[in-house]
Amino acid sequence: MFTAAAESFLKQAREIQEEELRRFASRVAAVLQGPEPGPEAADCLQRLHLSVAASKYPRRLDGKFVDLLQTVLCSPKSPEQIQLLCAAILREMSPCNDLTLSCDEIRDTKLLSLVSSVLLAQGNKKAEVSAVGQRIVKVLERRLPEGQSARYLLPVLSNVIRLSPESLTEASPWGSDLLHLLSQPGPVTEVDGAIATDFFTVLSVGQYYTEDQWLNVQAFSMLRNWLLCYGAKGLKPPNSDDKSGMDRSVVSVVSTTSTAGRLLPPKDRLREKAFEYCQRLIEQSNRRPLKKDDGDLQKACLIEAVTIMDIICEQDSSYVYRSVSFLKVLHSRISGDATYARALLPIARFFLNHGKTAAVDSDAIYKHLFTDIPAQLFHNPSLAFEFVQFCKDNTQLFTETSSVFRQSFPNLFKFLAWNSPPLISEFVNLLPFLLDASTAIEIFHLLLDLPCLTAALDVQLRSTALPTSERACDPAVKPTTCLEAFRHPQYKSMFQYLLRTKSAPEEAPQRLIPLRQLLGSLSSSPRVVQCAETVPVLLELFFRVVAEFADARLINQLVVLLLQRSDQLYEIPAFKDDVYRVLSSQLVMLCKLRPALVVELSTEILEFSGTVSNIQNKEAIFTHLVWAVGEYLSVSYDKRCTVEQISRFFETLEAMLFEITQLRPLASTPSYAPRAISVLMATLTKLAARSQDLIPRVSMFLSKMRTFVQNPAVTSVYSEEDLEEILIRATELMNLLKMPSVAQFVFTPPVDVASTRFQREVNETLPFALRIVTRLLEPAPGFVPG
């Protein structure tokens, strides 16, 4: 957040008008044209930079003023601060048509860096990126004059690689200079204080650093990008046939190259030197640092070194055999140290990429990574993000390689449960790769229990932080808190199942019901609430993916579980409402996907739809399920549908409608969703149209709805609009049943019409059709037949 003064400055800068900006630029120009720009010029340039940079809209300055800024920037008399500010203003105005800067003749490395930054900001409209890249390479190729430093140029070259890797040639002489920079000796020590006996690296320690040592650090920071851009096989950047550059490149490294190394082309020589550098870093990472910061640097360099070795092996498989045993030893050394957990990811990636080439069994590495790390370090946010990103970037893990990955998906959900907001987008991309016919049911339960898992992880963390003396529990005493229950035999197996590290599809999630109740005390925890908010998004994605491969058996299983689990959710009211909303819409989708399930699952559907409390507590699911019964319980969708089945459903739903519309004393009249009443009436009408013996019963029931909506006990709990809608729908349905043949066609289309566009249009316009029928059967007042 900005201070009040800073906010005020920014507001003034954003609100300055073009005319005022031009006048201010004229004053700045007058100051810059003075004898020697000083503090006043610096202050004016700072204000101008703020005015140009603060607005999201591009600012335009006079062409003459732009020329002046370029002149001052390139003038050897200009102070460094003035040059920096001129370059910053020119960058903010990019792309600029009035720019005439060129880096061709500039020899001062600081000035070359500033001018290059302005040119790179132009967007390569006039091949600026290529020109800058070629100029930087030429400067680096030659011996720099005394007092000049290449340190200012390496970041520019790194930007060139990022913006336009093809703009530099394959035989770039700077690749050899990179080798030279990576192998400079120096009077330094190791991180543990021992005198260094090998070449300098980024992990070497000294009281001060020479220019070459600073360049060594910078060269290592861009080594990975350089290898990715110019080390790949088959890459032929522009002018790659120019042999003169390669010859100069080889000559430039003679002083640091062995006799055998002289025979290697520059690209191979770079790989060789980079590989040696990474090996040295990995060896240095085994030393015990004297300072904590050096320990953090060790881990970061170890990750980068293994990543670079992986890239080198991708480009040249001859390095694989030299790397495998080396990295296996490294894994054995660091796998027991939780502080090195992030370094295990590039090691696992290496064996994924090269395990087959080296013919090594890497299952132990994968097993440790996917079993132990998520279970122990789910609360480390940076590791959680990198771990899930690793899975997302290597989705073949879950389709091709070891079964370890497919069995460990419950562990991955611990990362999501603990770090929900930052990981939700990553899991949206990852979830489809975890789902197939064998995992869908278990993942469905995992998603519904995700907030419960967050609460259990919280209890686990707090339990491990307790002193040993407080961890003991008496099995004979019933636990009263979550912490006591965590180690109590009665709940221990439930916690173990919820916190499992491997897939357990044969286990019954119903066993978690007591645990969900126990963990209810944590339902208001911010972390648990945040996790609960991510579940609806993932549930919708889950059903969308499953719909692509689900067979009849899986669809039926999901519908049954959907109805069962609606009673077994973690007690967060907003969470339950959101889940019911998603489940109800997905229930309709599953029924549309396979209408026959209404007949096949008639027992389960009748049990759910025949429970009055479901209307009150799970109205969305109840209403959509009743709608599905009315829509799909028909011989048009399933030849096995019989009159007896229609009658069974009719009687159950009739009893439900009677229960919620029967007249009671004023004080005891409950309120039910008007939508549920309307859907029940419509479904009963549809069933009666398919079994016309039922029409008199429905007609009589619908005729009583006027009495229902006019009763004082009812009008006191329903709004006038809702009662009017219920009465209109009852009248429309009753009128339609007066023409049984029309009702039968509308509600029970022939088999060859049921799924046609015509019938879809009939369903979409059904409310309009009902009103037309009503007008036909109930003429307007005053109408006298002729």
TrEMBL record:
Residue ranges occupied by any AP-5 complex subunit zeta-1 ARM repeats domain in the UniProt entry: 297-414
One GO CC term, this protein: AP-5 adaptor complex
Domain AP-5 complex subunit zeta-1 N-terminal TPR: 1-170, 183-256
Transmembrane residue ranges: none
InterPro entries: AP5Z1, AP5Z1_ARM, TPR_AP5Z1_C, TPR_AP5Z1_N
UniProt superkingdom: Eukaryota
Domain AP-5 complex subunit zeta-1 C-terminal TPR as annotated: residue spans: 426-776
PANTHER family assigned to the protein according to its UniProt record, in alphabetical order: AP-5 COMPLEX SUBUNIT ZETA-1
Protein name: Adaptor related protein complex 5 subunit zeta 1
Origin species: Calidris pygmaea
